[in-house]
Amino acid sequence: MRKYFICIDTINRRGIATYSYHRYDVSSNVETALLMTNELLQLIPNHERANGNKVYYEKELKEITMKKRVKGDDGSDDTPKSDLPISKAEPAVFDYSERKTYELLCQGKLKPTSAQLRSLSCRYVTNEVPFLKIGPFKLEEASKDPYIVIYHDAMYDSEIEIVKRMAKPRFRRATVQNAITGELETANYRISKSAWLKTEEHSIIANIVQRTEDMTGLDMLSAEELQVVNYGIGGHYEPHFDFARREEVKAFQGLNTGNRIATVLFYMSDVEQGGATVFTAINIALRPRKGTAAFWFNLHKSGEGDYRTRHAACPVLTGSKWVSNKWIHERRQEFRRPCGLEPDHGEFAI
Hints:
The chain has helices at 2-25, 30-43, 48-68, 96-106, 114-118, 157-167, 203-216, and strands at 122-125, 137-143, 148-152, 172-173, 176-177, 184-185, 190-191, 193-197, 226-231, 236-240, 260-267, 273-274, 277-279, 284-286, 293-297, 311-313, 316-318, 321-329. It has seven helices and 18 strands. A nine-stranded antiparallel beta sheet has the order 1-2-3-15-11-18-9-8-4, covered by helices on one side.
């Protein structure tokens, strides 16, 4: 009997701690949120979200403290060198400031500047493809520099249903590439299910791949297979690059097709709330709309990575999000996107 009551008491304490943690997790009371997180971790040490948020709360609390204390006791700036802002092009980690930007973009509270918006336009394009003179693509610019565009009516409802039907039986937990080993592995910052579809499996896949080539002007023979991804409630992918950085020497080694020069992201569903694709360096948010496709170059013409293309998938709050990715690689693009006479990969600047 005593064992029974101890068990019930433990369950109740866990339930109360979990409720308190989630309550303060969505409030602005950082100190109490950290306190509740630590209490929850004492009861459930392997609580995945609490462990991740503990690091975040500690950083946020430190930031708040630093803002309150402009200078140290001796009158000089007492910010440790390790806490100074990173000035390099590449963010070293998903840090506090980027996390705040990510959250604000997902919430729709951060917008592009008027200077970014004023030069954008929408138009019909044929990309010098004879067939498209009959039915050109509808192109909407989302950013001029880096160049990010949305193609409307890029995938039809009938195609989407076939792609979904093919992908569902193959779904596995989505993976990321380990920067050191080059191996694919699951990660806490990418929560979704994915499957890969080959071009030759179905005429619909072949049509989508051909359409991708017409949209981008790039050769699809060095592109990866079509990756289909489903995000359920809470599904997300934290800020990342699609291309491999210099230190990731083993990335895409097995493909032998070079780095990922460009990304095409097809939206295969509307999302009731959440699920936007956000670019944290340039304050751009793309909202999912069924049948549209986003396209951007990950590399400069020189082959250097464009760090402004760092992006994330916001958590799905209501509904389900379906997308498919076509990652295009460098090989066979030498004449389709040749290098310029001047290097175009200078210092990171927005």
